[in-house]
Design goal:
single chain; 378 residues; alpha+beta; Deoxyribonuclease I, Chain A; 6-stranded mixed beta sheet; 13 helices; 23% strand; globular
């Protein structure tokens, strides 16, 4: 009987023994819980509303994984502290966001050390924003990109921010193009900057989705099927290296002008999100008109918790969501949190492998996916 009373009043006893320090900690974390409890539900609805109507909310969605982790930690803290009301609210958010977080992180259960063998029906797709063939130090990366492609041996390659001027100076790149059929397009009046699609499969035709060249397509003969490959480079976030250093290097701490700078960064993120939404609406229209199987690649400049991703991935399969492992990011910077480069495919294909090689040729990492036609999708 005494033991039952002890259990019954354990929570109350713990609450009574709070010291001033613990009281302050509880108050601070209560305020944090309130903030997270407001922001996380907003993040959940961001993909369903056009950015032009959402104000600052698309900016908050960039930090969705961080907010989710904070919600998990707060839930554990309040359970330990026997504050079941606050713990219950955080647990509700954790459960609601569980499946959304699978677009950022997939549990990794053990490692396979044996090399996988694939049949001849499978093929590799690679997407890579090569940053005009300039590496993070500002030097030419053409030959390293070619070396990477040669080592990975993808069957389809989608390159964004392709710089023809630098590529034409490289004998190695000229040799590479002899192994592939090529489709490439300029961006407006800048013939040096192009999107490029390389294919070991026969290329039937190709064209532009957007007049700016931000989205291009090519029809490929893959086995007995015609597959339309879309290569996209949606509008940049307009975030510069100095902005990245300012945030990741905690430069805003002690900076008297931080409010102005942070407002500038947030304003650019909000404005460019609206521009990408307009682009993606046009691309999705072109995707629906295509009566072929489809593979959609490229740099979306948006995370999986965005209107752009939700629109582009509707009716498609995300290779990372199917077979990725761990936490995936494809952009160097902003705490290595951002997966903004994607390979999507219609349900005719299953993803067998997903890889993000840590190459230093660009401010992005390449994404390499192996796909297989599914027999039941005929």
């Amino acid at each position: 009987m005494a033991e039952e009373k002890y259990i019954e009043y354990a929570g109350e006893s713990l609450r009574k023994r709070r010291g001033p320090l613990m009281w302050c900690v509880d108050m601070l974390l209560t305020l944090l819980t309130l903030g997270v409890g407001i922001v996380v539900p907003v993040i959940f609805i961001v993909p369903y509303v056009a950015p032009a109507k959402m104000g600052i909310f698309p900016v908050l969605a960039l930090a969705a994984p961080a907010f989710y982790v904070v919600a998990v930690l707060l839930a554990l803290y309040w359970i330990i502290r026997w504050r079941m009301g606050r713990a219950g609210w955080m647990l509700l958010l954790v459960v609601a966001g569980f499946f959304r977080m699978s677009l950022f992180w997939k549990p990794q259960f053990g490692r396979e050390y044996e090399e996988k063998r694939y049949d001849r029906s499978t093929f590799k797709v690679m997407t890579f924003n090569v940053r005009n063939f300039y590496d993070v130090e500002g030097g030419s990366s053409v030959d390293r990109v070619v070396e990477l492609i040669d080592s990975l041996r993808p069957d389809i390659v989608c390159l964004q921010e392709f710089n023809r001027r630098l590529a034409d100076r490289s004998d190695r790149f000229a040799a590479l193009t002899k192994k592939y059929e090529v489709a490439h397009y300029g961006l407006g009046d800048e013939p040096e900057v192009r999107q490029m699609i390389l294919s070991r499969f026969r290329m039937l035709r190709s064209g532009l989705v957007l007049a700016s060249g931000a989205s291009v397509w090519a029809d490929l003969k893959v086995g007995d099927d015609t597959v339309r490959v879309f290569n996209n480079h949606l509008h940049s976030t307009a975030i510069k290296a100095a902005d990245n250093d300012y945030i990741t290097g905690h430069g805003f701490i002690g900076d008297t002008a931080r409010e102005t700078k942070i407002r500038s960064i947030a304003g650019r993120l909000r404005h460019t999100a609206a521009l990408r939404a307009v682009q993606v609406d046009s691309i999705v229209g072109a995707m629906r008109e295509a009566r072929t199987r489809r593979i959609v690649c490229g740099d979306f400049n948006d995370t999986p918790m965005s209107y752009v991703y939700r629109s582009m991935s509707r009716g498609m399969r995300d290779a990372f969501a199917e077979c990725g492992e761990g936490y995936s990011y494809t952009y160097r910077g902003f705490f290595n949190m951002m997966r903004i480069d994607f390979v999507l495919a219609t349900p005719h294909y299953g993803a067998l492998s997903y890889e993000v090689p840590r190459a230093d040729c660009s401010d992005h990492y390449p994404v390499v996916v192996r796909l297989k036609p599914l027999a039941d999708s005929k």
